[in-house]
Amino acid sequence: xxxIPLIIFxxxxxxxxxxxxxxxxxxxxxxxFYVAGRNLSWLMVGFALMxxxxxxxxxxxxxxxxxDFGFWAAAALPIGLAxxxxxxxxxxAEKLNSMKLMTLxxxxxxxxxxxxxxxxxxxMLLSFGxxxxxxxxxxxILTMNFMPLHYETTxxxxxxxxxxxxxxxxxxxxxxxxxxxxxxxxxxxxxTLIFIFTxxxxxxxxxxxxxxxxxxLNQLFTISNGGLINLATIVALGFGNILAIDFNTRIxxxxxxxxxxxxxxxxxxxxxxxxxxxxxxxxxxxxxxxSIVEGSPxxxxxxxxxxxxxxxxILISGIISASLSTIDGAMLSMGNIVTQNLLRVxxxxxNTNNQESEKTFxxxxxxxxxxxxxxxMIFAMLLxxxxxxxxxxxxxxxxxxxxxxxFGFYLKKPSSFAAFYAILTxxxxxxxxxxxxxxxxxxxxxxxxxxxxxxxxxxxxxGTIIAxxxxxxxxxxxYIFSKKPDLKNL
Length: 490
Known about the structure:
- There is one protein chain.
- By secondary structure, the chain is an all-alpha fold.
- It has a single domain, classed as Sodium/glucose cotransporter.
- Helix content is 76%, strand content 1%.
- It has a two-stranded antiparallel ribbon with strand order 1-2.
- Helix 18 packs antiparallel against helix 19 (416-436), helix 18 packs parallel to helix 20 and helix 19 (416-436) runs antiparallel to helix 20 (462-481).
- The longest helix is centred in the middle third of the chain and has 49 residues, at 151-199.
- The protein starts with a helix and ends in a 9-residue tail after the last helix.
């Protein structure tokens, strides 16, 4: 076994061991499995949030985006993710923590009604299904380049590894393993930058046309240079991730409202510190004139051909670890929504026997992870495209759910009737733009494009911005003018 495969193998084994050891703290209590006993300090919350934000899409996929479309295409990912954490900290974290929720679906259940709870839960599961696919695909693509495994086999093994400790340890195992996984990623990036800056003349690099053009703000403010797409990415991630079920689970897990708020700010800062260097790598690669290997991500080519094996192994293991931390967190959050909000297992338990009820609920919570893992495998096999998948997943949630979430958060008597039509409007408008747009975030739309003369390639990204605005307007107008308070008559 070579150096890189050995480092990957050891990293994964240590991850599993940490997860299994941490899982002992569950003690057959639902609150421990879901929200870590609501006992996380702001430091732990911040690290856990950063671990969910930085993943295979933002690293492996982001570097590929930056190489193809420029620095700001890659930087838009960590900037958007950090923005969402800052917004959560400023406007939402304290109250969400004080509500003592188990899942984000509980928020819609409390503020609206059962029908809205089901609709929002299904949309969140759809969105995170795409997120899982991107991360599983990223890990599979990396791993299969160093081990004699087929892509499909690798996807299955990844999901089985996640299940190995998530079934046992819940979010406690997830968060403990996050610390180890983020440490590996940080060490890998630091060693990579040290190698680059000590082995190449970067005085000339900083004065080069490649560097100056790479950081040109035209990529943000000029449509022909991808400005609309990059801004749409930041907007979709920045506002869509306010509804990220894994982010919110960590907010619920904080030991106090102020810890939740401070943890969001700290997590946002860490996301920028860890994420932005990956956005800089594509410019460095172009300066070094690294050749692209057909069918292989440019970051993988760099790690294989330029970096020493030990540093390359740490960097690749760090990216794999970052993806695993997001996969297990998202998978657990999805399982919790299935059990708590769709199946409503808690409504069918014998509340007179609390200990037995807790065990039964945990049984269903753990069992729900198995079909979710299977669905993740299918998504990853059908859609092995890291980078774009991250933005698309939160685009769906951003368009449909942000309006009912914000209005539900700040109105004293939010309207289920208005929420339903806001969700429907956001979803339909975003779907129409998806069908009529010849490209999606710079990638040709060859799946369901309907040729037309209304939406051109230069308008790529505008649907991301317009769809949620329609939803906000619809909610507000219905709330003001409608006398129907709920969905009973629909």
